[in-house]
Every structure is written in structure tokens, then in C-alpha cells.
Amino acid sequence: MSFVTTLLLALVVAGSPGKPRKVRNMPDGWTWPPSAAMKEAGARCLAALDAAEVQHRPAAPVKKIATPIEIPEMRIGGITLVPLRGEGPFPMDCHFAAAIAGVAPELRALGVRSLHFRTLHKYRAVRKRGKSMRFLSRHAVGLAIDVFEVGFDDREILRVKAHWSAADHRLAKVAAVFEHAAAFRTPLTPANDPRDHDDHLHLEAHMQLGDRDAALVPKDEP
Ligand SMILES: [Zn+2]
User: Which tens digits make up the pLDDT trace of 118-139?
Assistant: First the structure.
């Protein structure tokens, strides 16, 4: 068995359900302050955003975003991120913007034009049932967003709390785009986490460091 096969099997086992969740919640290889590898990944990401013609500018340094950027008018690949509170600026890691750019065509195909959010970057720990856990949230590193409403081309705005179970399952189809995208971890939704996510979708991008192929990372890796 090759080393790579062994490694992949180890990853699959580590990501299998039923294992205790690791306390560490950061991407593989993530450090603070950012390592040389993280800075290189950030530079590659910025180049990829340029190639995708996503307008962006550097954001002021903020704890603990490795590659902080701002998106003018918050438009990424035809999808607008609309704040439900606060005025911005809304710094995010480049990898989050690139991940949204990657799924934008699929979202547009579903008629999605906007994702309405409450929290993007926020320096805090993961919370479960209102309690702070011991590990840092990926909101703290600018890789996650909490989406409470989705806007569509037909002007319909669906709220997760009220419309998740609607007969046409429009919101579930939106969540499925993120579920199947290699650049995102499994989204938290009213379906898989009704206690903490009955009113919003928690969407969280990977930060690829080194040469691990995103497509090979198990979706439920902690
Ligand atoms: Zn969240």
C-alpha cells in the first residue's frame, strides 16, 4: 500500500462519524502568526481571485485572518453578500471569497442572487446551545459566514427559519451546493443541526495548505 493510500485511509478513518470531535478546529497546518506556507497559500489565493475577475482589496490586519481582504460592494461571481446588521467593512480571508467564487455559477443556476448574513468575521469560540466551547470558531479566521436569508432572481427572499421546510425545498437545494463543493466543509443547517442552526446556514470554507487535494478531504473532517 502506498504512503498516499495509507494517508488517505487514515484521513477517512479520522473523519468517520462516531469519533470524538477533536478540540482543534483550525485548518490542517494552520498557525498564528501565519506560517510561510500560509502566506504562500494566501498569495496563490489572491492570484486565483484576480484570475476569476473578483474585485478585492487588502483589508486592515485583523486577528486572526491570514489573508484579509475586502470585497467592494460585496459581489462575488454574481452573488451579493448582504449584511443584515452592521455596516462593514466586512473583512474575510481570501480563501472564503475564492470558495464563494467557485460555487457562484451553481448558485446562479439555482437563481440565487444574494446571501443575507449576520456574522462573517468575528473573533470568538465555537458556540453550542448558547455556550462557548474551548475551540476557536472559523468565523475568527474569516472563513465562515452565517446566512439567514437567500435572495432569488424572482425577487423572492427566503428565510431559513420560516422557509427551510417549504415544499419546493429551495433552500435545501442551495445548501446542497455547499455540501457537494470540495472548497467547503459540510454546512450546518436545520436538517443536520436543528438545535443550533434552525434559523441559519453556517457555511465554512477550507483553507488548503500544502498539496492536499480539496476533493480528497472527507466532508466530515473535524
Ligand atoms: Zn456560524
Answer: 999 999 899 888 888 888 999 9
